[in-house]
Design goal:
The protein is mainly beta. It has two domains: 32 residues, no CATH class; 190 residues, outer membrane lipoprotein receptor (LolB), chain A (Clam), CATH 2.50.20. The chain contains four helices and 18 strands. Strand 3 and strand 4 form a beta hairpin. The radius of gyration is 29 Å and the shape is flat.
């Protein structure tokens, strides 16, 4: 009986020893006997000090040859959209769509840091803008950045001196060309020309959709929140109106109302010293798609 008990005890201790090989050893990582037997030297895994993460967990990656090993893998500890352990931040998804009631929308309150983050070229990399002027003209502009460059779409209703047209632009960085497909008077027209900008410049250079960034990004303290309008409001003469980034019309904005939602610009209502009254709505952040129709492509082959 004693011999049987001794055999069982020895077997249990052996199983415990084998389980320890490859187990964690606190902050120092984990051990692995590397397949040795008897008195072989155990291998100590090493790990990166920084964190690696996905949408649910974070961990330290191995820096030794055992790349499948991880250390301290745990679920995120989220607070206000950010993990307090590793720094992971949830992607801000916009609820703004074409069906949003922008007039009734009440702006989110934003800090100065959040304000500046909204007015960057990256913020407008994939978005749709609808512009309506009191004089009657309407224009829809879209842009979508891809691996090869940028796709842009413009449609105007032909009111107030603005030509009625539909236009697609394809900007190819590799070939450094701009290809245009324009539909006017019942016909597609095709143009192709070298890029008029540095293809390695920031995304704002491709399209004037984000011209407002230069006007508003540094003017947080010039605006006050109006509870009645649910918007940040500016009244004065200090904001110059641009035609393109850095090029001004020679007149200034006298009134501006800005609304923010989900970390994005939702709308801008502005009036200028020349009497223009313009309302811009921004939506479909990150989901805007631009597809050049086949009949437009056929114009390039004609």
């Amino acid at each position: 009986m004693k011999k049987l008990f001794a055999a069982l005890l020895a077997g249990t201790m052996l199983c415990m020893a084998l389980t320890a090989c490859g187990g964690t050893t606190g902050n120092g990582g984990s051990t692995d006997d590397g397949g040795t037997t008897g008195g072989g030297t155990a291998h100590m895994h090493t790990f990166e000090e920084g964190w690696t993460w996905d949408e649910t967990d974070h961990w330290h990656k191995a820096t030794c040859e055992h790349q499948d090993e991880v250390s301290e893998k745990n679920a995120h500890t989220m607070s206000n959209g950010k993990c307090s352990v590793c720094g992971y931040e949830e992607e801000k998804k916009s609820s703004l769509t074409e069906d949003t009631d922008f007039l009734a929308l009440v702006s989110d309150r934003v800090t100065e840091e959040e304000w500046r983050a909204v007015f960057t070229d990256e913020s407008f990399a994939n978005v749709t803008m609808k512009e309506t002027k009191k004089a009657g003209s309407e224009m829809v502009m879209k842009r979508e950045f891809t691996d090869f460059g940028c796709l842009m779409y413009t449609e105007s209703n032909g009111q107030s001196g603005v030509a009625a047209l539909t236009q697609y632009m394809v900007i190819e960085i590799e070939t450094q060309t701009g290809k245009g497909y324009t539909y006017m008077d019942g016909k597609w027209y095709y143009t192709e020309e070298p890029l008029w900008i540095d293809p390695h410049s920031d995304k704002g250079g491709f399209l004037d959709l984000s011209w407002i960034a230069s006007d508003f990004s540094a003017l947080y303290n010039e605006f006050t929140f109006d509870d009645k309008l649910g918007a940040y409001v500016y009244d004065g003469e200090g904001i110059q109106v641009q035609t393109t980034p850095g090029e001004y019309m020679g007149r200034s904005m006298t009134h501006a109302e800005l609304k923010f939602k989900d970390g994005h610009l939702a709308s801008v209502h502005w009036q200028d010293s020349a009497g223009d009254d313009v309302y811009d709505c921004y939506y479909d952040y990150g989901t805007t798609k631009v597809v050049v129709p086949e009949d437009a492509k056929s114009a390039a082959e004609a």
